[in-house]
Specification:
The chain has 420 residues and is α+β, with helices and mostly antiparallel strands. It contains 8 helices and 13 strands. The strands form 3 sheets. A 6-stranded antiparallel beta sheet has the order 3-2-1-6-5-4, sandwiched between helices. A 5-stranded mixed beta sheet has the order 8-10-11-13-12, with helices on one face. A hairpin with a 6-residue loop joins strand 4 and strand 5. The termini are far apart.
C-alpha cells in the first residue's frame, strides 16, 4: 500500500511538471505571436501608407503631365522600339497619332525632312550609351499634307546593365506651337523695330538733303535779289524762289499727310464732285511741265462722272502719280484716264512711256524713302503716300511696268455714282 502511494505521488509531480512546461510554452508562443502580429500590423500599416503615397504621387504625376500637356515614353535600346506610357499633348486640328512599338527609324521618317535624320542620330547615340541625355526640337509632318507642328523632346538613361550599357531610356515630349508662334512674333517685332530705326535714319538723311536743296536756292536767290536792278532778271529770280518754295512746301505736306493718315488723325472729307473736271484741272497744272516732245493724253470713259468720296485725297494721289510720270518721261506720252469698274468702283490710271521699273522694284517703290534713281530729286515719299491714302479710301494703288517701255499706275477706289 505504501509503495503504491509513493508511486502515485511521484507520478503526480511529473505530470504537473509536464503540464506547467506545456503551459509556459503555450504562453511564450502566445506572447511571440502577439508581438509578431503587432509587428505585422505595423508593417502592413506602413505599406498601406506607402501605397497611399504612391497613389497620391501617381495622381499628382498625372496631373502635372496633364497641366504641362506632356507625353511620356520609353525606348528599348536593344530593339530601338518606342512605347508611349502617357500622352496628354494638345491634339488640335493638326495631329499625327503615335504608335506603340514603332521603331525609331520609322518614327524619324514622319518628321520634317531637315529634322528626321538629326533626331534619329541623337536617339541612336543615347541608346548606344554615347550620351547621357537627349534634347531635340523638331517638326512633325501631317500625313498627306504639307502642314506640320512643332515638338520638343527630352530623354535620359533610366537603367543600365552590369556592363554599363543602357537597358531603358525614358523620355517626354510636348507640343510647342504657341512658343514658336511667340518666337516668330518676337522676331517679327525685332525686324519691325530694326526697320523702323532704318526708316528713321533714311528719313533724316533724305529730309536733310531734300529740304536743304530748295532752302539753299531760296536763301541764295533772296540774298542776290536786292542787287538785281533789271526787271526781267528780278522776275526770273522771283520765279525760281517761288518754284523752290513750292518744292519745300510739297515735301513738308507729304510728310504731314502720310503721318496724319497713318495715325488716323485726318478724317475723310466726303463730298460729291465731277471726276473728269477734277482730273482736267490737275492735268492743266502739269502739262506745262512736260519735257519737249512729250504729249499729254486723256482717256475718259465718261465726259462727266459724279462721284462721292474724299476729293482732296483723290487729287493728292493723282498729283503724285502725274508728277512722277512727268518727271521720268523724256519721250512719247503721258496718259491720264478713268473708267467705271463694276457698279461700285472707279479705276483711274496714269500711263507713261518713261524708263520703267524693274520687276524687283515694283513693290519696293511703295516703300517710304525708296528711290529707283537716287540722282532724281525727290524724298521718296510720293508713292508711299499714294498707297496709304488709297487704303484709307478703301482702294488700292498698283503698278505694271517694263524697263525702257514705261509704267502704268492704277488707282482703284469705291464710289457712289450720282445721277445727273
Amino acid at each position: 500500500m505504501t509503495s503504491l502511494f509513493l508511486y502515485a505521488s511521484q507520478h503526480s509531480e511529473l505530470t504537473d511538471y509536464i503540464i506547467w512546461t506545456v503551459l509556459l510554452l503555450i504562453l511564450l508562443i502566445f506572447i511571440v505571436f502577439i508581438f509578431w502580429q503587432r509587428k505585422a500590423g505595423r508593417e502592413l500599416a506602413y505599406e498601406l501608407k506607402l501605397l497611399e503615397k504612391v497613389k497620391k504621387s501617381n495622381i499628382e504625376y498625372e496631373f502635372v503631365l496633364k497641366a504641362m500637356k506632356l507625353s511620356t515614353w520609353h525606348i528599348d535600346p536593344e530593339t530601338m522600339n518606342v512605347t508611349y506610357d502617357n500622352d496628354f499633348r494638345d491634339k488640335g486640328d493638326l495631329w499625327k497619332p503615335e504608335e506603340d512599338g514603332s521603331g525609331l527609324k520609322a518614327s524619324a521618317t514622319l518628321l520634317y525632312e531637315q529634322d528626321g535624320e538629326r533626331v534619329f542620330e541623337a536617339l541612336k547615340k543615347i541608346c548606344e550609351g554615347l550620351t547621357e541625355e537627349y534634347h531635340e526640337i523638331y517638326r512633325v509632318m501631317i500625313p498627306n499634307s504639307n502642314k506640320f507642328y512643332w515638338e520638343e523632346s527630352y530623354a535620359t538613361i533610366a537603367e543600365r546593365n552590369v556592363e554599363g550599357k543602357p537597358l531603358k531610356i525614358v523620355g517626354t515630349s510636348m507640343r510647342i506651337d504657341d512658343r514658336k508662334d511667340m518666337e516668330n512674333a518676337l522676331v517679327e517685332a525685332r525686324y519691325k523695330a530694326e526697320e523702323s530705326d532704318r526708316l528713321k535714319t533714311a528719313f533724316l538723311a533724305n529730309m536733310s538733303h531734300e529740304i536743304r536743296t530748295p532752302l539753299n536756292a531760296i536763301v541764295g536767290f533772296t540774298s542776290v535779289l536786292p542787287d538785281v536792278t533789271e526787271a526781267e532778271e528780278r522776275q526770273t529770280l522771283l520765279d525760281l524762289i517761288h518754284e523752290n518754295t513750292q518744292k519745300l512746301l510739297r515735301i513738308v505736306d507729304d510728310v504731314v499727310s502720310i503721318s496724319k493718315v497713318e495715325a488716323g488723325k485726318e478724317e475723310l472729307m466726303i463730298s460729291t464732285f465731277d471726276l473728269s473736271i477734277t482730273l482736267r484741272e490737275i492735268i492743266d497744272q502739269y502739262t506745262p511741265k512736260l519735257k519737249p516732245g512729250v504729249e499729254m493724253k486723256t482717256n475718259f470713259q465718261d465726259q462727266s462722272l459724279m462721284v462721292v468720296t474724299d476729293k482732296n485725297r483723290v487729287q493728292e494721289i493723282v498729283r503724285h502719280l502725274l508728277s512722277n510720270a512727268v518727271k521720268f518721261t523724256d519721250h512719247g506720252h503721258v496718259e491720264v484716264g478713268f473708267e467705271q469698274h463694276g457698279s461700285e468702283h472707279v479705276r483711274l490710271w496714269v500711263e507713261d512711256t518713261g524708263k520703267g521699273i524693274s520687276p524687283d522694284n515694283q513693290e519696293r517703290v511703295f516703300e517710304r524713302f525708296f528711290k529707283v534713281d537716287e540722282f532724281v530729286p525727290g524724298a521718296g515719299l510720293g508713292l508711299s503716300t499714294c498707297r496709304t491714302m488709297a487704303y484709307s479710301l478703301g482702294g488700292s494703288v498698283t503698278v505694271q511696268s517694263e524697263l525702257d517701255e514705261g509704267s502704268t499706275f492704277t488707282f482703284e477706289f469705291p464710289q457712289q455714282k450720282v445721277a445727273m
